[in-house]
Amino acid sequence: TPGAAVRSIRPYQSSEQYLYAMKEDLAEWLKELYDLDIEVGTFVEVLETGAVLCSHANNVTHVAGEFARACPGVAHHLRLPAAGVACNLAAQPGTFQARDNVSNFIQWCRKEMDIKDVLMFETEDLVLRKNEKNFVLCLLELARRAARFGMRAPTLVQMEEEIEEELRQELDLPPADTPLPRPPRKPRDLHNLDQMVQHLVSRCTCPVQFPMIKISEGKYRVGDSNTLIFVRILREHIMVRVGGGWDTLEHYLDKHDPCRCTSLSHKQAWKTRSPQQQVQHEIWLCPASKAATRGQPQPLLLVSRSQSPLPPVAW
């Protein structure tokens, strides 16, 4: 179908891919939660007036109130929102009323949900689209906090909970308190994950490929260190759990694979290189060292090769 063809092209760079993936997940979540006409392409347009955001804030407050009545003992130990937010549902994009809605939502996030400034955004970030990243991260953090008292969470937050449970089992820690039944989670999709990971790793054409070793389902060791990462499939994206957030595996490798992060020219060359393209070599004569004078063998020539295996060399 035409839509599938467009998605297969993916008209964005790897540095933008993780933001695209998060917007896609949040759009689907809001669509299911409020029956909105929203998708990743219209994500900002639907939310820029602040009306949906304020309605969402009021719904979160309502769910928190029900949780407090059902589980007063647990609620006493959580930071729950106690007040809603004023909203102008008729606000138009870019108007003062839209800015007022967004500003009210921001103040509610800070005061009622205790979201720290490092995860907050400013009014103009959304209204004038100055910083979509901060806006998306704030929405995701709000979803995490609301999930603690029983609100349905986006898929990314559900995957975070999965990973936390897996870590608890490995460390033999007691399970997390879940006083209210959680909404049903989507089944974990790890089908073909290994092949998809290998496909992305194989883009490195170094003679010694950047290592990424499978430890268990969805867990890999990367690089020459003992760093372990959790990998999950989110629709058409391979996501990596990084610190308190997420990244795409493609962007993660661009930042950590030495042949990708140190040579932009190599990345461009990889896209255009044909299999028959000759490999460039440089040969240096090594000066004699003190070790050589003591009879220890030392190399006389060093061959430096580009990011591809060496062809036969006629000496």
UniProtKB/TrEMBL annotation:
It is found in: Cytoplasm, Cytoskeleton. It holds the Pfam family GAS2. GO terms for molecular function: actin filament binding; cytoskeletal anchor activity; microtubule binding. SMART domains: CH, GAS2. The keyword rRNA-binding does not apply. Residues 20-147 form the Calponin-homology (CH) domain. Residues 188-260 form the GAR domain. Residues 167-189 are annotated as: Disordered. Keywords: Cytoplasm, Cytoskeleton. One of its GO terms (cellular component) is cytoplasm. Gene3D superfamilies: Calponin-like domain, Gas2-like domain. GO terms for biological process: actin crosslink formation; microtubule bundle formation; protein localization to microtubule plus-end; regulation of microtubule polymerization or depolymerization. Belongs to the GAS2 family. This is GAS2-like protein 2. It comes from Spheniscus mendiculus. The lineage of its organism: Eukaryota, Metazoa, Chordata, Craniata, Vertebrata.
